Amino acid sequence: MDSNVLWLIIVGIVAGFLAGKLMKGKGFGIFINLLVGIAGALLGGWLFGQLGLSFGGGVLGSLITAFLGAVILLFLIGLVKKK
């Protein structure tokens, strides 16, 4: 397994956990929040890249990007789930 993919998974899991704690009432359980964190890491990386935003390199920048992506994704899922 490529180390970048493994890193994305680890950061995504942490981001999903933290986003689930922040978005109380919008979480879907620990397992789904972890998967959302991984997807949020991808979303955050893409979205902030498109906007030309960067939170720096390294662990902290990756975690912030993934966390914000996971929060956005949980918010959007929460909107869809309500309907």
Mean pLDDT: 81
Give me the secondary-structure category: mainly alpha
State the distance separating the first and last CA atoms. 39 Å
Output the number of helix runs: 3
Got a strand count?
0
Number of domains: 1
Q: Would you give an account of this structure?
A:
There is one protein chain. With 83 residues, this protein is an all-alpha fold. It has helices at 3-22, 30-51, 58-82. The chain has one domain. It is built from three helices and no strands.
Describe the secondary structure blueprint for this structure.
Layout: H1 3-22, H2 30-51, H3 58-82
Helix pairs in contact: 1-2, 1-3, 2-3
What is the compact description of this entry?
The chain is an all-alpha fold. It is built from 3 helices and no strands.
List keywords for this structure.
single chain, 83 residues, mainly alpha, 3 helices, globular
